[in-house]
Amino acid sequence: MRLPRRRLRAPRRLATGREAPAPPARAAAPRPSSGQARSQESTVELAAVPDEIPPSPPTVPPARGPVPRPPQKIAFDCLCGANLVATADTYDKHSRCALCQTILLLSLVYDGDCRSFEIVPFPVEPRNGS
Known about the structure:
Helix content is about 5%, strand content about 25%. By secondary structure, the chain is mostly beta strands. It is elongated, with a radius of gyration of 39 Å. It starts with about 35 loop residues before the first helix and ends in a 7-residue tail after the last strand.
């Protein structure tokens, strides 16, 4: 659907070497003395409302150094309760429990607060070959 267009003012024309005529000067019309106009003239800015709750000082996290190198061996417990040892070669890889034969993903996690490493074992479902 096409809407009718109206021109609100005459289009500007570029000057072609001659100076363009100056637009006619408009006389300032007196403002009507309505209630709304008077209220806008007497508007006063209010003072800023002080914050009821003072802002808390920014908390600075404790300075932590670089993450140390993980140890070569870490002991952990399987889900069946067996005590196992993970070596640096098996970090973040699949391994099998010696007792229950469950395949585990041995995830190496660093705890920055305690500054220690830990192995978190996740059981992995074996894929069916069919």
